[in-house]
Amino acid sequence: MLLFSRTLSTERICFQTESGIAAETFGMLFARIFRTELQCRKTERRGGTELYTYDITEPVTVNRVFTKYHFADAGRTIDSGIIATNSLGVFAGGAFLACGSVNDPQKEYHLEFSVPDEELAAELTQLLEDIGVTAGRVVRRGQFIVYIKGSESIEDTLTFIGAQQCTLELMNVKIYKDVRNKANRIANCDSANIDKVVNAAMKQIEDIKLIAAVSGLDSLSDDLKEVALLRLENTDMSLKEIGENLSEPLSRSGVNHRFQKLSKIADSLRRGGAKNEP
Predict the structure, then answer these.
(1) What is the pLDDT of residues 218-234, one digit of tens each?
(2) Which of 33, 93, 150, 230 could form a disulfide bond with 161, CB atoms 3.0-4.6 angstroms apart?
(3) Among 91, 96, 95, 97, residue whose Cα is nearest residue 20
(4) pTM for the full model?
């Protein structure tokens, strides 16, 4: 958390966060390790968010921090020796508490670290790659952003830093979104199919009414007349249902074939052709 803090120099260490939990954790850990109680300054920002700030300027305290963690004033770098004797996951968790954030998964899958130093951002990217997570980098308003896209990569990262409950919540959201998207696709497909069936039925009725008006339905063969009457009396029936209600049941394709014959008769009448069935 110190390494990824806003300011880290031999004159001043400044840790800032919008998270009350992160601020409380930082103050508690600092007091436990350095036996020094820090004062937290809380200010309200525009939009209603609060900013928690710890300013460490006392030379002796700053020197103790730099000595303990082998910090150098020239630049920030991850001390592999310290990580090796502790926990890489805990270290990454501290980085996340210091400068990380994760978007609402209902909107998009995005986790990022807003790192104050370019070399440190590159080292964090490599650290994530070492655990199998591919991260990208971009500069935004003077900060070096290390970002992770994709639900599985974010889940792996959250699990690695010890946020298993957040991982479960993210997985639940992903399952809900997948089910909702599938339901929407099915509904859209059903709607398209219904429209297709209705349009086909309307065309069939139009053809039958034309034949009835010009030639009369008695001009049709018995099988075409039967299917025509069924359609006129049951505008919402599917081809399958019409086939099941014929005097001699017929398959869907058989019913469709009869409607195609009726369509050809109607087209012939529209062109001024014969009034009787070909």
Answers:
(1) 999 999 999 999 888 88
(2) 93
(3) 97
(4) 0.60
